[in-house]
Design goal:
The complex is a heterodimer. Chain A has helices spanning 15-24, 37-49, 88-96, 120-123, 147-158, 171-180, 190-194, 218-227, 325-333, 369-377; strands spanning 4-8, 11-14, 27-28, 31-32, 54-56, 78-79, 101-107, 113-119, 137-140, 162-165, 185-188, 208-212, 232-239, 243-248, 252-254, 263-266, 269-273, 285-286, 289-300, 305-311, 316-318, 321-323, 338-348, 352-361, 388-391. By secondary structure, chain A is α/β, with parallel strands linked by helices. In chain A, the strands form six sheets. In chain A, strands 2-1-10-9-11-12-13-14 form an eight-stranded mixed β-sheet. In chain A, strands 15, 16, 17, 18, 19 and 20 form a six-stranded antiparallel β-sheet that branches. Chain B is globular and about 30 Å long. Chain B has a single domain (1-73), classed as Non-ribosomal Peptide Synthetase Peptidyl Carrier Protein, Chain A (Orthogonal Bundle), CATH 1.10.1200. The chains are: A alpha/beta, B mainly alpha. The interface between A and B is medium-sized, with 23 and 21 residues.
Chain lengths: 406, 74
């Protein structure tokens, strides 16, 4: 009896069904906006095991934001050469030798989403395989087209674990899944865990809770511990550019000894050696190093222990998504009747930050906040659209919410 | 106060092309009945805070309209 591969809504997919589906249609979608999670995974695995290139598109990605994507090619199937996999051993063996290039997108610092091409090696760098990883049941809580979602997928898949889709689910449903499937592992953004609060009941099946993406506070850790008292809690540092790099308990990270010489710190900023990164035209290197934009503080330099202080640039973290306020301002300023705008994040107990736009209108304009938001809808991904638009005579705040000094 | 909450919720629904609700009931669930996502709930907190100076989610999760009223009546 083979383990379940995926529970998605009411549907259950075994590893057997997965292999049969992979063998059945010898074609895949090189540019894929998947209708559902199972089709998404099938397509990903097909690409990887046949060494074919794949571009992963977020289901709410606005293609006009992405340069170099031929819209007519999206979800067009391409034939694959004959293959047959008799079992998971064969599939995993092909995966481990894969030369596929997987393209993902991030919201970049320069406005447009940044395209990064990864090898399967980089994507699976942090995967641990072995007896102690067998039989785990994962809550799948990340966007599957983003780095963190890929990391969780490969960790679970290579150990033939079970994935339970909880991405974008409501609190009650998430708890129902955790109890119903006896979930053992959860890896998610702090926002996901915040939505599980307040503590009402403990769930003892959960052995490990991983937080990634954003910084979080002790209040959250304490509550997670109450909800999942048997779980070890840890943080991961992963980026779209480099994949998973280091993990640690609490808010202190350690660079593994094996890659410690691949990092440098200049003016508190963490620099990452190019050998650890995917490929992208939008990376700019300083010698052999990439500026991560993360400011850190050594706790024990010899042993590679450090803490994150802040981001160098002004990206705003909204529910785990990074928003470049300049990009949003540009889009608002382009609307007819608007003179100027200022976009900033306001601390929020649900999303970490919520986007606020202060807007100066031109005289005699009838624009409403709803008009502006509707216009932006056609241009930006949803998470980049300010949730509050304030019409002002003059700007009062900087993006960090401090009083603007003029 | 209740009218203001209704207005705020209908504004959020309008922005996502959802029809306004005529009235709110204390047992209405913000997510299940009113169709608000976590991003919408964040918008709700910002607007309520602007209006009433109270962060309704500060000390834990709020699920229903009744729970909002309770926080605002304090």
């Amino acid at each position: 009896m083979m383990a379940a591969f995926l529970y998605n809504g009411e549907r259950k997919y075994s590893y057997e069904v997965l292999i049969n589906t992979i063998n059945q249609h010898q074609e895949y979608f090189p540019l894929y906006k998947a209708p559902d999670l199972f089709s998404y995974f099938v397509n990903l695995i097909k690409a990887v095991v046949t060494n074919s290139p794949l571009v992963l598109l977020d289901s709410d990605l606005n293609l006009s934001e992405v340069p170099g994507i031929e819209e007519s090619m999206v979800n067009k199937p391409t034939k694959l050469t004959n293959y047959h996999f008799s079992d998971m051993t064969a599939v995993l063996s092909a995966l481990r030798q894969s030369t596929s290039e997987i393209t993902i997108f991030t919201s970049g610092t320069t406005g447009q989403p940044k395209k990064v091409v990864h090898s399967v090696d980089t994507l699976t760098r942090s995967v641990r395989i072995g007896e102690k990883y067998e039989g785990k049941v994962w809550a799948y809580a990340y966007n599957p087209t983003h780095m963190a979602g890929l990391q969780v997928f490969f960790q679970a898949f290579e150990n033939q674990n079970t994935l339970v889709n909880v991405f974008n689910m409501q609190r009650d449903e998430v708890y129902e899944k955790i109890a119903g499937h006896r979930i053992t592992h959860i890896s998610a953004t702090p926002t996901f865990y915040r939505l599980l609060l307040p503590f009402e009941q403990s769930y003892l099946s959960v052995q490990r809770v991983t937080l990634g993406g954003e910084k979080s506070n002790n209040h959250l850790y304490e509550n997670i511990h109450k909800i999942f008292p048997e779980a070890k809690i840890n943080n991961v540092y992963a980026s779209t550019e480099a994949g998973s790099l280091f993990a640690a308990k609490g808010d202190c990270f350690q660079i593994p000894a094996a890659i410690r010489d691949k990092f440098a710190v200049v003016e508190d900023e963490l620099l990452i050696h190019k050998s650890l990164l995917g490929k992208s035209d939008s990376f700019s290197f300083d010698g052999d190093y990439y500026h991560s934009g993360d400011l850190i503080e050594w706790v024990d330099k010899e042993e590679g222990f450090f803490k994150f202080k802040s981001r160098k640039n002004e990206l705003i973290n909204v529910g785990g998504y990074k928003v470049n306020p300049g990009e949003v301002e540009d889009a608002i300023n382009a609307i007819e009747g608007i003179r100027q705008s200022l976009v900033y994040g306001k601390a929020n107990s649900i999303l970490g930050n919520v986007l606020i736009a202060e807007v100066q209108k031109e005289e005699g304009t009838e624009l409403t906040d709803l008009d502006i938001r509707k216009t932006l809808k056609g241009q930006l991904q949803d998470f980049k659209i300010p949730r509050k638009i304030k019409f002002v005579e003059a700007f009062s705040l900087t993006r960090t919410g401090k009083l603007r000094r003029t | 106060m209740k009218e203001k909450v209704l207005e705020i919720i209908n504004n959020i629904r309008a922005a996502k092309d959802m029809a306004p609700v005529a009235e709110l009931h204390i047992e209405d669930n913000l997510r299940n009945d009113l169709g608000l996502t976590s991003f919408d709930l964040a918008e709700l907190t910002v607007n309520i805070e602007d209006e009433f100076d109270i962060d309704i989610f500060e000390s834990g999760f709020v699920n229903t309209i009744g729970e909002i009223y309770t926080k605002l009546e304090k």
